[in-house]
Structure formats: C-alpha cells, structure tokens
Specification:
Rossmann fold, about 20% strand
Length: about 300
Amino acid sequence: MEILIHGAGAMGLYFAARLQQAVHRVRLVARTGWADAPRVRIATEDAEETVELAEVTDAVPEGAATDLVVLAVKAWAVPEVLRDLSTRGPAGTPFLTLQNGVTAPEHVVEAFPQAPVLASTCVVIVQRTAPGWVSLLGREAQLTVGVFSSGDAGEPEEALGLAERVFAGTPVELVPVADVQRALWKKLALIASYGGVGAVTGLTVGQTRADGGARSLVWEGIEEVRSVARAHGVEFTGEDAAEVFAVYTDGFAAGTTSSMQRDLAAGRPSELEDQTGTVVARAGQVGVDVPVHGFIYRTQSAREAIARAEA
C-alpha cells in the first residue's frame, strides 16, 4: 500500500520505519532539517536498524496515489496540515490520527467529510534523537484504533479492515475498538490530568503520586474529564476512571513527565489547548464545573502564549 505519513517527530519516524518494513511504500513529510537519504534509523534495546523509505519530502506530493494518510504531527499542527492536504490529495483518502486528545479526528472530518477517519490512542515510548533517528524505549507500540467516521466508505468494518491490513506484518499490536470516543476521552483524562498537574508543580509522576495533595488533584482531574465526557454523551464509567488512575499510579516509571509538561517547561508550543483547553471549553458547553483543569489552564496559558509568540 501507498502510505503518506505527515510528521517526522518520534511517532512519525517510528511508524514510517515499521510500515515500510511491512512492504508498504512510505512517503514521509518532514518540515525541515533532513539532510540524509530517505531512510530512518531506529534503535531498540537489542539492535539498530536502517530502513529505506520510498520518499522523504518537505511538501505533500501533489496527486500522488495514497491508500492511507497517517497524521503524526502535534495536535495543534493538524489544522494547518489539513489545509495543505486539501489542495493536493483525493478527498476520499482514509486518515489515521495518532494525536492525543479528541480534536484531531474532528478536524479531519470537518476538512474531509467524504474520507473514512480512523482515530487511535497509542502506547509507545519513542524519542527522536536527530533528523531521521528514533529510539524505541521498551515495547513496540500498542495502537487502539476505532472508526471515528466512515465517510463515504460504507460500513465501519471496511475502515477497520483497512487498519488491520496496513499493520499486518508489523510488530505493532493493533487493538480494534467499537467505541473510539470512549478510548479517546479516557486517554485525554489521563494525559491532561497528570500532565497538567505536572506542568503546574514542575514535578515528575513519581513525585506527584508520592504527595497526597498532588495525587488527589490528578484523581479529581480525571473525574472532571469523566463528567464532561458523560455530559457530551460519551460512555465513561467509574471503572474507566479507576483504570485510568491506575495507569498513573502503577503504570508509569517514576521519572515520567508528559510531553505537554516538557514542552511548556522548555518554552515550546505545546498541546495545552488540545488537552486542558479542550476539557475547559467542552465543560463550558455543558455547564460542568472543572476547577482543577480550569486552574491548570489559567496558570499555563501565559506560558503557552509566550512560546507561540517566540516560535
């Protein structure tokens, strides 16, 4: 299959390598800084692999045949990418979103209503160490995928079948789900809550969960997101909330921080709007009180504005 991956950060590099190894033809769109041949070097705990891609380019190839577009950019960059794609590709090409939060697949449906849209949550630890270089820390990716919109493709099973064919032959564990909205909101509850508390305190997961006050703020943040999701008609049970909290308390290494927290601390544009900002905005739409996320958003918005002004 012909796969177009937009975004050459850690996620884009990782999926480009694994999909190319599965005998797909992968075109990777990288903004800048690519001085090497069209290849990805991926380092694991056991080996270092070099994978030759079909193409690396700084612009979406106009009119190129594409079976699947994979969006691997940060959530805040998705609208700009879609504007670029709207002038260059077939309107019905299927999409797979990898972003945190719930906004990315919504943006795709708005820009490409005819296209099947697969949304996902991804569990993997990857680090981009240089242009074209990525390190995999620990296990291969687990990708929970569901149909966000069938577009003009017909039944949802057809779109899920595409995902299964694309990832067949890769080490990526594909977990199909019928209710992808539920999966997206559960992931949002996790990352916006522990990441937001981490951003405010400047502490790692190990440090916040060892402190009773900070730990309780993470739990309260998860419960706030659950209330917002339920008010918007998304199934999000008490058991789901406990499962999300257990990932924070038992599933992360002590030194873990979220990408949003790291970006805010480093003065880079972050996913604050697509994570905490989304929780606050969607809460306002349905009259749900979210004091924890409201405080996080108000305290971090100035940092975000400064980072974007200087970017």
